[in-house]
Amino acid sequence: MTIPDEVDIIVTGGGSCGCVVAGRLANLDHNLQVMLIEAGESNLNNPWVYRPGIYPRNMKLDSKTASFYYSRPSEWLGGRRAVVPCAHILGGGS
């Protein structure tokens, strides 16, 4: 796939909402050039993404398909930090 020099609309974030918005805009007017930008790697034909049996491996801390965000230490967690995994692939974590 080649990246065009000019597009009409850029949608940033390839999560559920970004994919829906880009798809609907593209279907609305077939003359529009819509670009969808996702920060994560390409997950096309990646078995780690589409095979349910191995999908939980994406939650490993060294995963290439997820990012992990940490809260500040919380007294409600006994001084520990909460870990929030976020999908870093097209389609997001939904």
UniProtKB/TrEMBL annotation:
InterPro entries: FAD/NAD-bd_sf, GMC_OxRdtase. Signal peptide: none annotated. One of its GO terms (molecular function) is oxidoreductase activity. Belongs to the GMC oxidoreductase family. PANTHER family: GLUCOSE-METHANOL-CHOLINE GMC OXIDOREDUCTASE, GLUCOSE-METHANOL-CHOLINE OXIDOREDUCTASE N-TERMINAL DOMAIN-CONTAINING PROTEIN. This is Alcohol oxidase.
